Automatic annotation (TrEMBL):
Keywords: Coiled coil
Source superkingdom: Bacteria
Lineage: Bacteria, Pseudomonadati, Pseudomonadota, Alphaproteobacteria, Acetobacterales
Name the record gives this protein: DUF2312 domain-containing protein
Segments forming a coiled coil: 24-51
Keyword Repressor among UniProt keywords: no
GO molecular function terms attached to this record: DNA binding
Gene3D superfamilies: Winged helix-like DNA-binding domain superfamily/Winged helix DNA-binding domain (1.10.10.10)
Domain GapR-like DNA-binding: from-to ranges: 20-91
């Protein structure tokens, strides 16, 4: 049996099955911290949409505008042109 007092039990540089345990732990902890930050940001965004709604803005339209602003302007223009053509074709 391996005695806990034996040399080579330094867990700061422990390698188990070819995996550096500290490196793995560090990666996992970083991802966990970022996921917590993402939850906090999502809550903040939800609060902003609640504020917008209480101010009388249409949240669905705001979300649509945000989605459009993320897109390439040329792609947006093409999409709007096609939408206009389709509407005219349908008599709208």
């Amino acid at each position: 049996m391996f005695d806990e007092g034996d040399a080579g039990t330094d867990t700061s540089a422990a390698t188990v099955g070819g995996i550096a345990a500290d490196r793995l732990r560090s990666i996992i902890e970083r991802v966990e911290r970022l996921e917590e930050e993402r939850k906090a940001l999502a809550a903040d965004i939800k609060d902003i949409f609640t504020e917008a709604k209480s101010a009388g803005f249409d949240v669905r339209t705001i979300r649509h505008i945000i989605r459009i602003r993320r897109q390439d302007p040329a792609a947006v223009e093409e999409q709007e042109s096609l939408l206009d053509i389709y509407r005219r074709a349908l008599g709208m």
